[in-house]
Amino acid sequence: MKIEKTVNIQNKRARFEYELLEQLEAGIVLTGTEIKSLRSGKASITESFCQFIEGELYVINMSIDEYKLGTFYNHKTKRERKLLLHKRELNKLARKLKDAGHTIVPLKLYINDRGLAKLLIALARGKKLHDKREAIKERESKRDLARVMKKN
Questions:
Q1: CA 128, 130, 132, 138: dihedral to nearest 10 degrees?
Q2: For the residues of 64-95, what is the DSSP string, one character each?
Q3: Is residue 29 within 8 Å of 127, Cβ to Cβ?
Q4: What angle do CA 13, 17, 20 make, to 5 degrees?
Q5: Rounded to 5 degrees, what angle do the CA atoms 136, 119, 11 make?
Q6: How far apart are CA 40 and CA 142, in angstroms?
Q7: CB 4 within 8 A of CB 99
Q8: Residue 117 has what DSSP assignment?
């Protein structure tokens, strides 16, 4: 089964706010109206984060808009959604999360070639203010260089 429209929702803010240490791909437990709304690209992960609740990993504050053709069976826009990972991956993340300053942030929400919703998550450490300033300087210098190269 080939899906023509690809869904690719990114959290660009996470790469600026955090230093990414390790990335994992996780499945998501969704209801019927959630996946239909997601396939139309009506989701946001900018303010979301991941948290362990009773030994299982959940994504919190991920917003999936209500399905416009849904009836009273429609879902809540913001709710805790369970992430599907292997037990050894969950244990590894839980151990690394105990270190001070580490968190798990979602980077990208997409539908893979088999039609399954996946969430790319990363173990991250918060950046300091001077690191953010460096990132801004690098981005501006790359933009200026690209502008000069385009003129030539």
A1: -150
A2: EPPPTT--TTPPPSB--EEEE--HHHHHHHHH
A3: no
A4: 100
A5: 20
A6: 33
A7: no
A8: E
C-alpha dihedral, 70 to 72 to 73 to 77, nearest 10°: 70
Under the banding of pLDDT at 50, 70 and 90, the label for residue 5 is low
Residue listed under structure tokens 């994504």: 59
**Residue 49: burial class (beta carbons within 10 Å; 0-12, 13-18, 19+):** middle
With tokens 């690809």, the residue in question is 6
What is d(CA 18, CA 123) in angstroms, rounded to the nearest whole number? 9
Element (H, E) at 47: none
Opening angle at CA 14, ends 125 and 137, nearest 5:
90
70 versus 25: which is more confidently predicted?
Answer: 25
Give the distance, in angstroms, between the CA of residue 98 and the centroid of all CA atoms in the same chain: 21
How many whole angstroms separate alpha carbon 79 and alpha carbon 61? 7
Predicted structure pTM score? 0.76
Please give the full DSSP string across 127-151, using - where no structure is assigned. PPHHHHHHHHHHHHHHHHHHHHHHH
Mean pLDDT estimate for the chain: 84
